[in-house]
Specification:
The structure holds two protein chains of two kinds. Chain A is mainly beta. Chain A is built from no helices and twelve strands. Chain A starts with a strand and ends with a strand. Chain B is an all-beta fold. The chains are: A mainly beta, B mainly beta.
């Protein structure tokens, strides 16, 4: 079955540090890939997505590139802020809509001033 | 666009009572909605998939008689936790699929005392 594996947290960084959260997947077919963010006490929000190989999703300074050859979708940001502290979930779907998401375990990011 | 409203955002109930959680799509028709549960510091777990006008499909290990899901219209799905117990305390999140992806509700934190 489909699965998503992401690095365990927590990840603790100082403000303005470079962030990488690794995500790899296994799936049948050609999945769409997503990063969701969950701020404390809130529901999930879509951060970015990519629907085909070599696509780069980007939003709020975060980027992730769909790498079919390495089945990866690592999340990066060049300079994190305290407000980026949250839990980040990598997910895949084998269809763009109408099919369920498969989530990774989530990675907690803590950014210190 | 594609807004999902989930209500209530938090609820405290006595053991043995039932709690209903609503998930509404405000500006689109959601033929499919998903209900997730999140334990502290863990990832989302899909509980069930509900399709408008038909019975929900429950994931293995989820008690359908305890977690009643109704999707009677294209804009409303409800999850009722029946005879709640402290172990049902958790964060419940709905998600609706639409043409360009998924939108999540803001979540409901249930505490059973």
């Amino acid at each position: 079955g489909d699965s998503v594996t992401q690095m365990e947290g927590p990840v603790t960084l100082s403000e303005e540090a470079f962030l990488t959260i690794n995500c790899t997947y296994t799936a049948t077919g050609y999945p769409s890939l997503f990063w969701y963010v969950q701020y404390p006490g809130e529901g999930l929000q879509l951060l970015l997505k990519a629907t085909k190989a070599d696509d780069k999703g980007s939003n709020k300074g975060f980027e992730a590139t769909y790498r079919k050859e390495t089945t990866s979708f690592h999340l990066e940001k060049g300079s994190v802020q305290v407000s980026d502290s949250a839990v980040y979930f990598c997910a895949l779907s084998t269809n763009n809509a109408g099919n369920m998401l498969t989530f990774g375990g989530g990675t907690r990011l803590m950014v210190k001033p | 666009g594609a807004v999902v409203s989930q209500h209530p955002s938090w609820v405290i109930c006595k053991s043995g009572t039932s709690v209903k959680i609503e998930c509404r799509s405000l500006d689109f028709q959601a033929t499919t909605m998903f209900w997730y549960r999140q334990f502290p510091k863990q990832s989302l777990m899909l509980m069930a998939t509900s399709n408008e006008g038909s019975k929900a499909t429950y994931e293995q290990g989820v008690e359908k008689d305890k977690f009643l899901i109704n999707h009677a219209s294209l804009t409303l799905s409800t999850l009722t936790v029946t005879s709640a117990h402290p172990e049902d305390s958790s964060f419940y999140i709905c998600s609706a699929s639409h043409r360009v992806g998924y939108t999540f509700g803001s979540g409901t934190r249930l505490t059973v005392v």
